[in-house]
Amino acid sequence: IPTDTVYCVGYPLVLNAISAGGTTPYKWSWNGSTTDTLSTYTSSPDSTVTVRIKIKDNNGCENEDSTLVTYRQLPEINLGPDQRICFYENTILDAGNDTVNLKYLWSTGDTTRTIDINTQNNYWAKVTDSLGCYNSDTLTLNVNQVPVNAGPNII
Asked: Do β-strands 5-8 and 13-16 pair in parallel, antiparallel, or remain unpaired?
């Protein structure tokens, strides 16, 4: 199994045990629960945990390993509710705060924390922390177009 790792909340934790040597078939025991065929452990922990595995081969030889799985909340992002602006206005969308080391990616290709926009569209932002945990949000910007009407033509 891997060395100590980070688990991002909201995604399944999947650990694969790789065995070498010994005589098949193997019996796998993840955290004390024996299964005959599963070399993969899947879970969704809600705190930091140590996952233990014990492998027993057909001759009764055993080996064990463990890994510390650090639980990590997803970075916060909230673009707010959908917006409506007039055709001559701009609005600034903000994908987060500067209190932690975050990377930003917008549907526009921008990689800054904020973008200044004035085009009707659906916009999304993805925020990734230093450990690779990410979160995203979407906002729709509607732009009111003012119709030009100078009245009837007079000759």
From this structure: unpaired
